[in-house]
Amino acid sequence: MSKSKAYHKQIGRYVQGKDSNLPHLMQAVFSEDAVLKMLVHSDEIDFPSEVIGLEGISQTLCSDFNERFENIRTLCFLDTVLRSNNLMNCRWLVAMTSKETGALHCGYGEYHWTFEKDYSALSQHQVKKLTIVIEKMVILVPSRDQDIDPEADKKAILSWLASCTYPWAVSHDALDNMPDIKALAGIKKGLLEPVLST
Fold it and tell me: Is residue 148 part of a domain?
């Protein structure tokens, strides 16, 4: 398997583990001393800025995350992938519902992956560092100024994401079918902007 394909497989395994609360999958993805960094540019969600070690990362991204949210669906966009040696970046889109309020949260950002330079058949190109950038997160709630039905919008968004290829998709294929919901306009605009190399 090529290095690029191995990286894609590991990211897909990470998404499955995070979305479905399968922390054992993280053991194959992250090294024992891996570092997770979170750069959050939205007031609508909060995470620790840094987590060190496989156990803490699994707790944060799987157990803790799934205590707060359900119906989690994350897409990574193939056409946004930038790779150089053991580094790989891509954009992502997520939607999920709050277990506490039932409100739907939808947002996007970037994953910045650093894989181990040295690997064996056992390590399977494990991740040494992951930086998650959350660019925007919106919560669908009733509006006083507009006739908005958040329950109908929630069903439309979850159905739309369920129809997309998972976890890897092509951004234009997914966004062409995005429901026409005003709250998503900023997310769509951001995801359609050109990808800048880093």
Answer: yes
